[in-house]
Amino acid sequence: MWLARSTISGVLVNLRRFLVGLLVFAGLLVAGWLTYRPDRALRAATTAVAEMICAKTFVSGLDPQTTFAETMERPGLRRLRAVMRYRVEPDMRVVDASLLGLHASRASYHDGLGCVSLQGQKPPYVPHSDISALRAAGPAAALPDFDATPVEPANPALKAALDHAFEEPGAPPLRRTKAVVVIKDGRLIAERYAPDIGVETPLMGFSMTKTVTNALLGILTRQGKLSPQIPAPVAEWRDPSDGRHEITIEQLMRMTSGLALDETNSGFDASSQMAIHRDMAAFAVHAPLISPPGQRWAYSSASTQILARIIRDAAGGPEQTIALAWRELFNPLGMRSATLQYDGTGTMQGHANMLASARDWARLGLLYLGDGVVGDRRILPEGWVAMSATATLDTDYGAGLWTNRSPHVHALGRARAGIPPDAFFAFGLLGQRLVIMPSQHMVVVRLGDTIDPDGDIKGVARLVREVITATQAPATAAK
Q1: Could you tell me if 427 and 310 lie in one domain?
Q2: Residues 319 and 426 in one domain
Q3: What is the Cα–Cα distance from 380 to 378, expressed in whole angstroms?
């Protein structure tokens, strides 16, 4: 009898331990779910796919099947290829994406405004802006226009540089160069495009859009409406006892705000999950401080999206922001193909996803090459370009631009590879490169869908090195 009771007692103790362990395990699962929210990461993936196919189909005019195939090779999406599904509805101009019907996302196209994600039950706010009318309203472009046909270089060395830029390796990862444009001394001297791309095809710039945000901040600073030195005018931070109250506009530009907005492109980081919110900036501004402002650098698209809302508010609203961009930036530069995209509240996606032709991205570079002046018109304040290209802390990042004007190992490596030490850049995911070289009076644009980890920076360095050599040779010629 005693033995039976002892056995039963032991069983009950073991059962109790098992149940406690099960409860602990379940609690850890719930805590992990609430902390990392894999559902949000998966939704971020379908949102990225829907937005990319929508923009490249309805803005760029590219084949959606090719876009899907190239998009699903990106790190972070590659593992979802077998279960990712998409559908294009040409009549409605929408794209749906899901994971076997789960975590579905939809993006819709609007003339001149690109694609917007439909997040939640509330329909997105679409700015009431007639882009065709804004283009026609001027002012006239202060930069020279280019011939409608691609400029094929007569210089054999320059032609060889373009040949090398489009070469593919014998094995993946492929470079997939889509467009190259070279401008020297204000003249378009060489360009080339992939078979499905033309001189007017708007191409995704990804984070090169941050430089457009930089330009709009510069314009508003020139107009006296903003200043990099002032505390960022964010309503959620107006309480002086809030440590975020002291964050300046420049610290957001330099990504030293101290906010918990580090970007990892994992799907679990704030910058990735920002995309699944109707109001991206409202999500970003609620991030807590993890270090004093100005003391720590971390790459952060979400920080730039906060700046996009600041621009919207300073301009007077979504429609006024669009008018500002065309009147003060795109029209003076002749960027007729520029297509900014917007979140569900009508705030521009200032962190990424503007589309423009390779020539128009080069025109943006000419603005910075000219120290903020085009023709006889000053667009950016004096000193703005130098400030933007000055390295932040111990990095090779400036304020909306990457830079070689730094002792950072990456800057030194680019200089050794042939990109001049005074160069600075707009960089975007998958190898989007706008290289600005004052010492060479030159701008080089390379756009593509490269999935190797360094975004084909070695190929870009070779392109720049060979173009510099070719244009310094006595036989330099151009069409």
Answers
A1: no
A2: no
A3: 6
